[in-house]
Amino acid sequence: MERKDYIETGMKKTKHSENYEVVIIGGGPAGTATAIQLVRLGIQSVLIVEKGSYSDSKIGESLPPNTNVLLRQLGIWHAFKLEGHLQVGGSCSIWGSAESGYNDYFINPHGLGWHLDRNKFERFLANQACKLGAELRTKTLFESIVSETNTGFCLEIQNEKKETTKIQARFVVDASGAHAIFARKRGPSKNILDRLIFLSGFIEIPNAVNFSSLTMLEAVEYGWWYFAVLPGKRVIAALATDPEVVNKYELTKPEHWLALLRETKVLPLQLKPHLNLCEKIIASPALSSSLPQPCGPNWLAVGDAASSYDPICSLGIHKGLLTGMEAAKTITEILNNSNENALKNYHDFLETDFKKYKKSRDYFYGLENRWAHSPFWNRRKNPNHILS
Asked: How far lies 42's CA from each of 20, 22, 135, 271, in Å?
């Protein structure tokens, strides 16, 4: 019951205060990782402001093996393993040719990967932050910056009852996701490298069907498909494509999306007669983008608020945890006046990580050359193109 109480009632271990050392806008993996690491580094007054309640379905459920290292560094590895997520031994892909290829995690020095119950994972991270002493307010919105001084910000937040509260913060973390609701008030908009649409649906697996635990990918002329088995005998299937393809074929309609899904090769034949959605199609933008100004005096952005990665690289949650941990180090140095170059170092860290990601993304898309006249694939053969 302890875990449920933290999330549903906003129970906190620290004394209530409207003045905080750090206020984190967003309670996803990046925000909660920042909070966990901040408290571990000695910053005790931390508030997480989360607009949701960890109940809505979310996509993004794959953890590559190297994320295990970050969970250990956050001090939550043993607790995570008790959560009942599914271990993954590797991936199977039809990419670059009509033949299936395999990537085996069993020889990875960091161990196996994971397929998550995403809501359960986010609740877990939030509870870990609360157990350490951070405060969490769910169903609460960041409304505005009331004032700014050289010692921090005064923010206005609003709860589900439409009650507003002014919060003083020495430092603000934007962990609000791709919308970057705080950072976009501080500087120029994002540089956008690519605009994918991710169309996802959840499918129940009949008991008679033996579905592989491998992550599965399949390139097609109009984009690529992704499949992963999840806890609770469900599969997530998702199509990454361009907005014009979605509009042309009306792919937000479940019957049209399912028709294309049945044509895939990597999906097991015995599952295809049972393709019925548990929920509606979820259409999500999947940008490749970065903020030219991801930090400034008394604030910084983490996770997707700082930069968004193409899901082909399966780095979304990993990046959130990694940037959160680096952000906590940076903030601690600033609040303790121990490193005058802390913000510059953080900015450089984000730039370096984005360059590594871009190189990886270009490599994956460069492997596929079967459709010379496909707008989808040709668009991704120009690695230096920046969209407005």
From this structure: 14, 12, 15, 51
Q: Where do the domains of the chain lie?
A: 2-86+115-190+290-361
Enter the tokens of residue 338.
């121990």
CA 175/CA 306 separation, integer angstroms: 8
Q: Which residue in 225, 316, 295 sits closest to 266, CA to CA?
A: 225
What is each CA distance from 287 to 93, 147, 175, 344, in whole angstroms?
Answer: 22, 31, 16, 25
Cα distances from 18 to residues 101, 165, 170, 338, 377, in angstroms, run 55, 8, 12, 26, 51
Q: pLDDT at position 383, please?
A: 54
What's the CA gap between 352 and 221, in Å, rounded? 32
Q: What is the pLDDT of residues 184-233, one digit of tens each?
A: 999 888 999 999 999 999 988 877 677 778 899 999 999 999 999 888 88
Residue 8 has pLDDT above 80, yes or no: no
pLDDT confidence of 5, banded at 50, 70, 90? very low
Q: Name the CATH topology of 2-86+115-190+290-361.
A: FAD/NAD(P)-binding domain (3.50.50)
Q: What is the largest CA-CA distance in the chain?
A: 63
φ/ψ of 216, rounded to 5, equals -125, 135
pTM of the full predicted structure?
Answer: 0.91
